[in-house]
Amino acid sequence: xxxxxxxxxxxxxxxxxxxxxxxxxxxxxxxxxxxxxxxxxxxxxxxxxxxxxxxxxxxxxxxxxxxxxxxxxxxxxxxxxxxxxxxxxxxxxxxxxxxxxxxxxxxxxxxxxxxxxxxxxxxxxxxx
Length: 128
Prior knowledge:
- The chain has 128 residues and is mainly beta.
- Helices cover 0% and strands 50% of the residues.
- The radius of gyration is 14 Å and the shape is globular.
């Protein structure tokens, strides 16, 4: 069974950087888009960024635009989230998610129901 595997979380000081990685174990990504969500304690899981697998179109939450960059390496079958200028409010568990290989119509990146596979999450903690 295909699983999404995240890595790269950790503890960092405010202003620092981390890079998260997401890979599909055991097979090539077969997906329309891959996204990163995050969930802070007692808060809703929300979209951070998304990227379409084939064309590389990106989407960002306004809170991370200009600081975070999502990218994909098709050859390595991996999606990255480069996080710069981290703030304490970025502290959360970060989840990778992928859609089915659907078409582009009506894709809503922030809608969690779009995604059929989820990773186990990786903790990102930003100290002040």
